Amino acid sequence: MGEEMELILWRHAEAADGTPDDARPLTAKGRRQAEHMANFLSCRLPQKTRILVSPALRAQQTAAALTEQFITASNIGTHATPQTAIAAAGWPKTGGAVLLVGHQPWLGELAALLLTNRVEYWSIKKGAVWWFSRREREGDYQTILRLAIAPDQL
User: Fold this and answer.
1) How far apart are CA 49 and CA 8, in angstroms?
2) Residue 136 has what pLDDT?
3) What pLDDT digit, counting tens, does each position of 23-59 carry?
4) Distance between CA atoms of residues 33 and 81, nearest Å
5) CA-CA distances (angstroms) from residue 5 to 51, 80, 101, 102?
6) Computed from CA positions of residues 12, 86, 129, 101, in that sequence, does the dihedral angle turn out positive or negative?
7) Cβ within 8 Å of residue 32, ≥6 positions away
8) How many domains are contained in the chain?
9) Is the separation of the CB atoms in 26 and 58 below 8 Å?
10) pLDDT, tens digit, for every residue of 117-138?
11) Looking at per-residue confidence, does 26 or 93 come out higher?
12) In degrees rounded to 5, what are phi and psi of residue 33?
């Protein structure tokens, strides 16, 4: 049996309207959403999870609710694609666990790609986490959705 690999997608929490888009901060509600999800994740994330975060302020503030130990990755910014995001994660080749903090529509498109092998528009709520595992069973690789949870479910 091979090593399990984890890919966790975390959409930024609720942000204020305005321009420029990359400078939009979290709202008070968004800060609460990020804190609730960070509390949920902090005791569940595997040791040595690599955390990659969009350079957009709202994603940076969302990740900062969990930890200051993250890498800002411009290739998972607001204009990323499922392909650039999966390449940034190095998933599933690198093994271990990777947390991507980013944006719609690429988060939902990546979730669809992982589960259906097609890029489709799937909606992921603000502040929500979708957690995937890839495992080997008898020489066959499977990607499974382990968890999909929104802040209002915590």
Assistant:
1) 10
2) 81
3) 999 999 999 999 999 999 999 999 999 999 999 999 9
4) 25
5) 14, 22, 17, 20
6) negative
7) 151
8) 1
9) yes
10) 999 999 999 999 999 999 888 8
11) 26
12) -60, -45
Structural domain including 62 reads: 5-153
Read off the pLDDT band of 1 (50, 70, 90): very low
Distance between CA atoms of residues 114 and 54, nearest Å: 20
Cα(72)–Cα(60) distance, integer angstroms: 8
Mind spelling out the 3-state secondary structure of the chain? CCCCEEEEEEECCCECCCCCHHHCCECHHHHHHHHHHHHHHHCCCCCCCEEEECCCHHHHHHHHCCCCCCEECHHHCCCCCHHHHHHHHCCCCCCCEEEEEECCCHHHHHHHHHHHCCCCCCCCCCCCEEEEEEEEECCEEEEEEEEEECHHHC
* Residue 103 belongs to domain with CATH number: 3.40.50.1240
Q: Which token pair is 79?
A: 């204009």
Structural contact between residues 57 and 22, judged by C-beta atoms closer than 8 angstroms: yes
In this prediction, residue 139 carries a pLDDT of 81
Q: How far apart are CA 70 and CA 53, in angstroms?
A: 7
